[in-house]
Amino acid sequence: MPAPAGLGIEVLSVPEGTPVELDLRLEAVLEGVLVTGTVSAGLAGECVRCLDELSDIVETTFQELYVYDDAAHDDPDADEESDVRRLEDDLVDLEPVLRDSVVLALPFQPLCSQDCPGLCPECGAHLADDPEHSHEAPIDPRWAGLAALQEDESTVQHDPES
Fold first, then answer.
1. pLDDT at 73 over 60
2. Is the pLDDT of residue 105 over 80?
3. Considering the entire predicted model, what is its pTM?
4. Domain extents for the chain?
5. How far apart are CA 23 and CA 161, in angstroms?
6. pLDDT-derived band at 45, boundaries 50, 70, 90
């Protein structure tokens, strides 16, 4: 089946319309229909450290009971917002269950590799491409005035016109 829109999180999701493979088993039980299945889909997103594109596959399982929508199976204590899923004219709506299953199986912070160094916090350089990347040690703001005086003094000493 094609993937519905919004199947994922901000940084990693199943692109809309890409194929989602479902392997389902439907069993008739006293209360309704028990649906057990596995979901497999391709993912596209970006690494949260270095922002490189990444792709992966999500595989997850689910099991959900869909109760009959008739007076014999109505629960007078249940409200409209309950977690009970109902058959609708002998049809099963799998999208909410599929969405819950896939989104909960996704990593909270996807990485291109477990040892991804990310980006330099000062200049944004890609640290995987330049592992020796460094910057001069920052000057303590309390000594910044003296550093400016030292720079002025060094330019006066090297100036041939003085």
1. no
2. yes
3. 0.69
4. 7-105
5. 84
6. very high
